[in-house]
Amino acid sequence: MTRIVVLTGAGISAESGVPTFRGADGLWEGHRVEDVATPDAYERDPDTVLAFYDARRRALGAVAPNAAHRALARLEGAIGDDLVVVTQNVDDLHERAGSRRLVHMHGELRRALCGACGARPEWDGDLIDRPPCPECGERMLRPDVVWFGEMPYELERIENAVVACDEFVSIGTSGAVYPAAGYVALAAAFGARTIELNLEPRDTLLLFEDAVPFDESRAGRATELVPAWVDEVIAGLSTRR
After folding, report:
1. Which of 50, 83, 102, 130 has its CB surrounded by the most CB atoms within 10 Å?
2. 136-146: average pLDDT
3. Rounded to an integer, what distance in angstroms lies between the CA atom of residue 87 and that of residue 142?
4. For residue 17, what pLDDT band results from cuts at 50, 70 and 90?
5. What are the residues whose beta carbons fall under 8 Å from the beta carbon of 240, sequence distance 6 or more?
6. Among 180, 187, 239, 238, residue whose Cα is nearest residue 215
7. Which long-range contacts (CB under 8 A, 24 or more apart) does 33-37 make?
8. Residues annotated catalytic, as ranges
9. Which of 190, 194, 191, 186 is nearest to 168 (CA)?
10. 3-state SS class at 203
11. pLDDT tens, residue by residue, 103-120
C-alpha cells in the first residue's frame, strides 16, 4: 500500500468562502499581522486579538466543505491509516468532510487554549468576555491558534509521517513558511514522489537556494484538481488488487 502525506493550506478552503485573510496589502481583514497574530499583540491588546478570532470562529458557520475536502475524506476511506492529512488551516472543514487522520499544525479555531493549565477544550463561543476554563476555572482562555513566533503542533508526528511516506502532496499552499516549507525536501530526500496541486505552482528554486522542486505540479482549482488526483490514486489501488 502507498503511504501518502497531504499538506493543505489556505487555497483548499478559499473555495469554500474562507478568506485567506492575508490580502495583497499584507493585511489580515484590515489588521496588520503584528497586531492580531503574535504573542506580543495579545499581551499588548488582548481585546482586539480576541475579537478578531471570535469573528473568524463565528464565520465558520457560514461555510461548508467543498469537493476537495470531500475527496480527501474519500481517499482516507479507501486507504485508511496510509493517509495522513497535515493542514496549516485552523478551520474545521476537513473534519466536517469526514477526515479523521488529521493534524492541525497551526491549531484550531474551534478550540481554546488555557494560559493557566494548558487545557485545549473544544470551543464554539466567544472568548472576549473571558469565560472560565472548563478544566481549571481560571479566566485565561485564548484562541488555540499558533501565532507567529510560536511552535506548531505535533512536529515530530508530522516529520515521522513525511519521512515514511511514498507520496507527498501539497495542496493550496505556497509552502513558503518553515517548517512546512521543508517538508517537500524532506519527503524527496527519503525517496517519496512529490506533487503540488495549486492555483499557481511555485518555483521553489526561486524561493530558497536549497529548495527541492516538486516532481510534478498541477495548476488549477483545488475543487477540480484534488478529486481528479484522488480518483487516480483509488483507480491505481484497484489495478493492483
Report:
1. 83
2. 98
3. 21
4. confident
5. none
6. 187
7. 33/148, 37/145, 37/147, 37/148
8. 106
9. 194
10. coil
11. 999 999 999 999 999 999
Contact predicate 197/172, CB 8 Å: yes
pLDDT reported for residue 22: 57
CA distance 218 to 198: 7
Cβ atoms 186, 202 nearer than 8 A: no
Residue 194 pairs in a beta bridge with: 168
85-94 pLDDT, tens digit each: 999 999 999 9
Grid cell of 121 as nine digits: 477544550
Q: Which residues pair with 195 in a beta bridge?
A: 169, 216
* Range list of β-strands (E), the chain: 4-8, 27-28, 31-32, 83-87, 102-104, 107-114, 141-145, 167-171, 193-198, 216-219
Stated as kind and residue range, the H or E segment containing 174 is: none
Distance between CA 129 and CA 151 in Å, rounded?
A: 27
